[in-house]
């Protein structure tokens, strides 16, 4: 009997142990661990929206030169879309060549390097320099002897001891030799060589300051007078040469504001004005060239880049003949992107700014129409929007950390 009871008690104990283990396993499966809960909460926090408001210190506003202006309603002037390309200003560029044939002995510039006016670019050995210098010295010596002889004959002629004609002939010969000596001296000076010395190397120097955009110079290379060894251009200020079609020629004028977009930088915009309109029609393309000066900010512009210019046209009415209605506009510099959305920053207080998601419309010479997201009179950040955006995003990252 006791044995039977012990068997029943053992079975009950085993059943209790198995049931307890099963309940403990189910509890662990149903309840998340502390680490799992924290990760989930952090994931939800990371997907929160970007804040709409940012506060800047007054010193930051001053240092970043943040400026605002109210959004206003204006009549967007009609524009002409003109294709074209970037070109160097001929008055601020130069092609370097040698005035005489020679052979390069030293090259001290590279393509892409910046040079200043007067900088040494290369040295050429000119065998003929020795001959020119020798002829110059010989001519000066003959001129000195001829002048002394003319002076002597002049004195004798004054005393009646020599014919006056001989004195005049001697003076003429001395004048001719001195003129010849002066000419050879100027020739040496034009080559950058002194009248004295035994050197036969010619120094080629930069005629203008700028960037070397092309190089055709190797040590030991023979150089002729018609060969360009370097092309230099000042790329701080360049031209956009826009092509104006014949039918649009009456709509463009000097001084018209324009905005250029290049194929290489579709999100960048360069402002300029029309400086010159060509006087001759291209007989093949039936276009004239309109020259627009641009400032090369951030060193983005390269010679030969293609793009399009939107130039404000003369007319101020729509194609239908009715006056254009005023629309809400802001400067293009006010627009930026945050999280893939086009936004502007509105100043709500002296040191507080608010993000507004906007819908942009047509543009004209740096002014963009705002279809939605902004009200007339709101003070929009026009200069320094990048700084406001950076502070806003930096605060977002700090919150996530």
UniProtKB/TrEMBL annotation:
Q: What's any one GO cellular component for it?
A: membrane
Q: Where is this region: Disordered?
A: 25-50
Q: Where is the CusB-like beta-barrel domain?
A: 238-313
Q: Where is the composition biased (Basic and acidic residues)?
A: 39-50
User: In its keyword annotation, does this UniProt entry include Magnesium?
Assistant: no
Q: Which domain of life is it from?
A: Bacteria
Under InterPro entries, the record lists: Beta-barrel_RND_2, BSH_CzcB-like, CzcB_C, MFP_Cation_Efflux, RND_pump_MFP
An annotated Gene Ontology molecular function: transmembrane transporter activity
Domain CzcB-like C-terminal circularly permuted SH3-like, residue spans:
329-389
Cleavable signal peptide: none
User: Which PANTHER family does UniProt cross-reference here?
Assistant: CATION EFFLUX SYSTEM PROTEIN CUSB (PTHR30097), SLR6042 PROTEIN (PTHR30097:SF4)
Protein task: CzcA and CzcB together would act in zinc efflux nearly as effectively as the complete czc efflux system (CzcABC). The CzcB protein is thought to funnel zinc cations to the CzcA transport protein.
In the record, the note on similarity to other proteins reads: Belongs to the membrane fusion protein (MFP) (TC 8.A.1) family.
Name of the protein described by the UniProt record: Cobalt/zinc/cadmium efflux RND transporter, membrane fusion protein, CzcB family
- Its source organism is Labilithrix luteola
